[in-house]
From TrEMBL:
It comes from the Bacteria. InterPro entries: Gfo/Idh/MocA-like_OxRdtase_N, Gfo/Idh/MocA_oxidrdct_glycsds, Gfo/Idh/MocA_OxRdtase_bact_C, NAD(P)-bd_dom_sf. Residues 17-136 form the Gfo/Idh/MocA-like oxidoreductase N-terminal domain. This is NADH-dependent dehydrogenase. SUPFAM superfamilies: Glyceraldehyde-3-phosphate dehydrogenase-like, C-terminal domain (SSF55347), NAD(P)-binding Rossmann-fold domains (SSF51735). It comes from Parapedobacter defluvii.
Length: 432
């Protein structure tokens, strides 16, 4: 059966029969991008909110509609080739894993999963099944990020000594949550299938504007916080350019008001984090180890690092690599800058074509080149990022990481944050 699924997924086709799982919020953006590819036929749509689903259905007349992704995969098993998973983080693994087991190509929004253990298993499953995969790091396909990757690989700034990553955007929807969980819930609105939305997470009473559709990312049950969500974007070019592997250790400094509140620490993510990973060095780094730091919320890259940027204001979201021969700034969604500019003013940019991240996935499914952000590559990166969310829960503690055995040898108590216990009825065979 497995070989048959693998062969089915690999068959070249003139049209890709696609199903969108999650069509609200970012799901609407994903739907529009898949719909814009001339060789995609969107045959099915799924969302737990019937109101959102009906609005999406107006864009794709004739698409079959579902409020339960399990029913979609069962009924559409022989009618679809691929799916996109654009739902809250806590249900990424169970949906993507089920689709891969069915031999379907998978585009999954970032982060790939909610937990480190889920990422490891999903990555291995995708490789074994031979399906096409793509993580939803759309900027990874941009000329800017691809230029950054190429410059790192070419060694333009010499050997890299240190990397500083940041996301200091203000007012990001989905994170602004200060108080504890609501004591009482409210009646679930008509058309919202709340049990399906909760999925693998512990059952929580419905609360408007707290979970669905707005602020789920701030809750540990459902999201992975600021670093987990945005980290995949900022890390990507650095990870690929340097050919990084699993970190040696990780430690986190967090927002003091969150750290001092037992209620918030039990339920929510802090709105300010400073995470430091130590990675093994390689032939592109200046030493045997490479420190990589992440800053968000109230934590900012060091002043001397920001001062390297000649512009009026340091980019809110960016990666800065310090090398032995200069520095490289990769603004999120922007144009990379070699520093100091006077030294590199004559350095030519690579001639790269524009690329749509979604279309690249579709083309790969139809027999084209490998995707930019396939799981074999982005899985280990996501693991590293989510190790940061483990460190956040035990702040100010250096966690030594044994990647092979998925253990913290010096602090075993933190291993309970590597995977969750799924709600009864939502377990995954062989995993939970």
């Amino acid at each position: 059966m497995e070989s048959a699924s693998k062969a089915f997924a690999a068959l070249p086709k003139e049209k890709l029969r696609h199903a969108c799982i999650g069509v609200g919020g970012m799901g609407g953006h994903d739907l529009q991008n898949f719909k814009s590819h001339p060789n995609v036929e969107i045959v099915a749509l799924c969302d737990v909110d019937e109101n959102i689903l009906q609005k999406a259905a107006e864009l794709v007349p004739g698409a079959r509609l579902y409020t339960d992704w399990r029913e979609l995969l069962k009924k559409e098993k022989n009618k679809i080739d691929s799916v996109n998973v654009t739902v809250p983080d806590h249900n990424h693994f169970i949906i993507a894993m089920s689709a891969i087991k069915a031999g379907k190509h998978v585009y999954c929004q970032k982060p790939m999963c909610h937990d480190v253990a889920e990422v490891r298993v999903l990555t291995q499953a995708a490789i074994k099944a031979g399906v096409i995969t793509q993580l939803g790091t759309q900027i990874a396909s941009s000329i800017g990020d691809r230029t950054g990757v190429q410059w790192i690989k070419e060694g333009i700034i010499g050997k890299v000594k240190h990397a500083y990553l940041c996301s200091n955007r203000s007012g990001i929807a989905g994170y602004r949550l200060e108080g504890p969980r609501p004591v009482q819930g409210q009646e679930v609105p008509s058309g919202l299938h709340w049990d399906n939305w909760i999925g693998t997470a512990p059952m929580r009473p419905y609360a408007p504007s707290i979970y669905h559709p707005a602020i789920w990312r701030a809750w540990q049950d459902f999201g992975t916080g600021w670093s987990g969500d945005i980290g995949c974007h900022i890390f990507d070019a650095v990870w690929k350019g340097l050919g990084m592997t699993s970190p040696i250790s990780v430690v986190a400094e967090v927002q003091k008001s969150w750290k001092d509140s037992p209620d918030r620490r039990a339920d929510t993510w802090p709105q300010g984090n400073h995470i430091t990973w130590m990675f093994p060095g390689n032939d592109r780094t200046a030493s045997k180890t490479l420190p990589v730091e992440w800053f968000d919320g109230e934590f900012y890259p060091p002043e001397e690092v920001r001062a390297l940027y000649p512009g009026e204001k340091y980019p809110e979201e960016a990666a800065m690599l310090i090398g032995t021969e200069g520095a490289l700034l990769i603004p999120h969604g922007g144009t990379p800058v070699l520093l100091p500019e006077s030294k590199f003013k004559d350095h030519k940019r690579p001639d790269l074509e524009e690329r749509n991240h979604y279309h690249h996935f579709v083309d790969a499914c139809l027999g084209g080149p490998k995707t930019e952000s396939h799981f074999a590559q982005t899985g280990p990166m996501t693991e590293a990022i989510l190790l940061g969310t483990v460190a956040i829960r035990v702040p100010d503690t250096v966690l030594e990481w044994d990647a092979v055995n998925m253990k913290f040898p010096n602090y075993p108590d933190a291993e309970k944050y590597l995977r969750r216990t799924y709600r009864k009825g939502w377990q995954v065979d062989g995993f939970s």
